[in-house]
Amino acid sequence: MRALVVGLGIQGHKRRRVAGADCVGAVDPVHEEADFRTLESVSLDSYDAALVCTPDDPKFALLKYLLRNGKHVLVEKPLWFSNEAETDVLAGLAASSGAVCYTAYNHRFEPHFVRMHDLISSGALGKIYRCRMFYGNGTARLVRDSAWRDSGAGVLPDLGSHLLDTARFWFGDIVDDFRIVSADRFENLAPDHVVIVSDGAGPRIELEMSLLSWRNHFTCDVFAERGTAHIESLCKWGPSRFTHRRRVLPSGRPPEDVETLEREDPTWEAEYAHFKELCLGQGASNLENDRWLYRSLGRLSSEIQGAA
């Protein structure tokens, strides 16, 4: 597959490295390493797919151009448009041209995230009562100094999109009843620490996200009828640990399985391989997931900005 990288920021450089020999060029209006300044200046005959790693504002126009011309697209999350109708436009173009439009949520390929998904799906935990996740990094100052990132709902669409997508990966089509518990602006103009919860009929879900965790970190705790499951850290911040505890009745110290990984982040390569499989006709676009995330994040973001 011949892949074109669109946008040579941090994510664009990662995608170009992972694509390796598949990469036939890069587009960026200002970056000195780019081969082209505009997408339209690249011959349509020279590439099969585009890896779109741009800020949010130009995404819709870029994706519309690519899908209309039958080019497969991997686009960095979140797919954040001015209205939901734009998602319908992209879905229609993808369907009519046969092109794949795939929004990248690389944490779905984190080994312990896959293990949590498989454990929950197996039924070994029984009824799931509650899930609590925390995702934090220390980028508050970088975001504040950015020309475009310290705006809107801040950390919510940035890290919250990952957490909401992970909840859907593990629990399926969950109810969109999340509410804001807190949205703080400790250092930034936009919220840099947010907590949201869902009290729906399924598992109770609490999601906390922060730009103020000076050591990048992720934790997850799942409490269930027959035991608990826990994740501590991601591979890229390793070591990453998965713990499964089996409940002892009526009470007592539970036996536990613990797996600790110390390895390089495998998610980028795994996600790119998955995208290539989709492009070869072994799957479809994931725009319905984007539609759900757009509605949920849009509603929560409006609440946050309205309360500012």
Describe the structure.
There is one protein chain. The chain is built from 8 helices and 13 strands. The protein is an alpha/beta fold and 308 residues long. It is globular, with a radius of gyration of 20 Å. It folds into 2 domains: 3-104, Rossmann fold; 107-265, Dihydrodipicolinate Reductase, domain 2, CATH 3.30.360.
Per CATH, the architecture of the largest domain is 2-Layer Sandwich
Task: Give the overall pLDDT as a whole number.
Answer: 94
**Quaternary structure of the protein:** single chain
CATH superfamily of the largest domain: Dihydrodipicolinate Reductase, domain 2
| Beta-strand fraction estimate | 25-35%
- Per DSSP, the total helix count is 8
Q: Termini distance? A: 46 Å
What is the CATH class of the largest domain? Alpha Beta
Provide the CATH topology of the largest domain: Dihydrodipicolinate Reductase, domain 2
Q: Provide the low-confidence segments as ranges.
A: none
The side-by-side strand order for the widest beta sheet comes to 7-8-9-6-10-11-12-13
Question: Would you list the SSEs in sequence order as H and E?
Answer: EHEEHEHEHEHHEEEEEEEHH
Brief descriptors of the model:
eight-stranded mixed β-sheet, single chain, 308 residues, 2 domains, Dihydrodipicolinate Reductase, domain 2, 8 helices
In brief:
This protein is 34% helix and 25% strand. It is globular. The protein has 2 domains: 102 residues, NAD(P)-binding Rossmann-like Domain (Rossmann fold), CATH 3.40.50.720; 159 residues, Dihydrodipicolinate Reductase, domain 2 (2-Layer Sandwich).
